[in-house]
Amino acid sequence: MSKIRILIIEDEPDLGEDLQYSLEESGYEVTGIAPNLKEAYGLFYAQNPDIVIVDIMLNGVPDGIAFAEHLHENPARKKPLIFLTGMNDKDTFEAAKKTVPSSYLLKPYNIKELQYAIELSVEQFQGGGSLFSANAPNVAAMQDSFFIKKRDHLVKVHYNDIQCVSVEGRYSDIYTGEAKYTVRYSLGDMGKKLPTSFIRVHNNYLVNLNQIENFNTKDNQLSLKGDRFIPVSKRMKDQLMERMNLLK
After folding, report:
1. What is the pLDDT of residues 17-57, one digit of tens each?
2. 81 with 64: CB under 8 angstroms?
3. Residues 54/84, Cβ–Cβ less than 8 Å
4. CB under 8 Å to 190, separation ≥6 — which residues?
5. Spelled out in words, what is the top-level CATH class assigned to the domain 5-125?
6. What percent of the chain has a predicted confidence (pLDDT) above 70?
7. Which residue intervals of the chain bear CATH 3.40.50.2300?
8. Where in the chain is the domain with CATH 2.40.50.1020?
């Protein structure tokens, strides 16, 4: 499990530090504060944040929009982006809107309003409905991780940290070495969202191949890291052994 990682692009040092403090107090990780466009590009590519909060005017120039345009031009670079600015004129808003930001907030910011904008931005970036809906699955998938809705926060869970997934009625339980998360997805739907390192070994279990420590072929039981044991059905045993790169 890890926190949502946020890059701040802000040229006013006091405001940048205050924003960092507020975000970290709210459970996020701030990867850095860039005061200009050059440092913004450097930090963005070096740190690969989950979301970016951008001021429009940097040292008197609308470089925040230039940064957003740069990301918007290439879908591979695109990340959720929130403008946080003192510019409330229509022309600036229209120029910013062309970059398709996740949100446009005016200074002075309200931390609760900003927190809601961050969570909605992550969800919208995945192309799904809101996790705040009572009937919506409480998970949004990214390239290498899940964001799981837990109370009033989104918790980031890396695929590599997931040991297994088990089904319980209409819900699935995701197990890492440290925690358990329950989501409103069937095991079949979970299998479609997870990478190819996950394999179904039983009607009730998906297992991360990278987390397997031992396979007792006599008892048809897997031992995962951290002494977690998972049954393997006879029907799925051959497929599992093919995927384990077995050396004979």
Report:
1. 999 999 999 889 999 999 999 999 999 999 999 999 999 99
2. no
3. yes
4. 165, 172, 174, 183, 206
5. alpha beta
6. 89
7. 5-125
8. 161-243
